[in-house]
Amino acid sequence: MLLPTEEARRAAGFLERKMGGWEAFPPQAAVVLGSGLAEACPPMESFVEVPFSEIPGWPASSVPGHRGSIRLGSFGGKGVWVQFGRLHYYEGHDMTTVTLAVQVMHLVGVRRVLLTNAAGGLNPLYVQGSIMLVRDHINLMGENPLRGVRDPSGRPVFLDLSDLYRRETADRLVQESAARGIELHEGVLVAMAGPTYETPAELRFLRVVGGDAVSMSLVPEAIVAHYLGMEVTGISVITNVWDLRRPLPLSHAEVLEAASSASRLLRELISAWLEISP
Questions:
Q1: Is the dihedral of CA 75, 271, 135, 35 positive or negative?
Q2: So where are the chain's domains?
Q3: Rounded to two decimals, what is the model's pTM?
């Protein structure tokens, strides 16, 4: 299998026709807004919004808190793709479908992507509403999105991930957040398959192996975006902090509520990230 897939190419062609071409605002940067984070959308001068369900081969989102649409327009005179929601492995999709969005982004010209999500905090220094810059990840989903993918010569993909989350951009975002008075934590994101939340024993294990936060998304998209040559930045909003001694019950509704409350600060960070774009 080669990436991008034919399904991704059809979706990219549809969006190009929908926009009447990319001459006015070719999308250079993309932002994916995760669970409950739609209010963090940066202010855009003009845009067209397209539901997932209108795009050929693109499944509708089935998860509450994921609007399921793409906003294409401009921010500061630059073309921007803002995605409300994503597709998840735990919904039953394969990894090719989970990463469809970043494949299409690549085809329409996006070169930088900011992936956001809601995550549970493992680091005891975090509180509900903390924002964590993803410096690295641990993939425990039991699947890799590049499994079965071949490079143009037909060989399996052996991809270096040492600078998956671009250090230079991350460092600049840390500086910008400090200048704006926003506390930005830096940590390691653990990816789990879901849809169940972790057991107390799993939470303790994830912390011991180096995790600062845990989620069910972002990592597959980051890997494929990196493979396709895109610069990747990751941000997790900490919607709950696990007490590793005695975890309390958690619901998806609580996650959405906490994510929404952090949207104002996240919007500022997203705007800062777009402003430092080349």
A1: negative
A2: 6-275
A3: 0.95
